[in-house]
Amino acid sequence: MMFEHIATCRTYTDDVKRIITGSIGFDDYEWGISLFCDDVLKIKKLIYEYKI
Hints:
Structural class: alpha+beta
């Protein structure tokens, strides 16, 4: 599953920047990803192209 994720996202690495944050809660680990881009449609294409 991770190889598919990496292959899909690789084409957007020049246009879409990301910040990955993480924290530890009482029971498990939490993480989040923030996406930044000059053109919001590129983020939309990235999200809709990657389907689980």
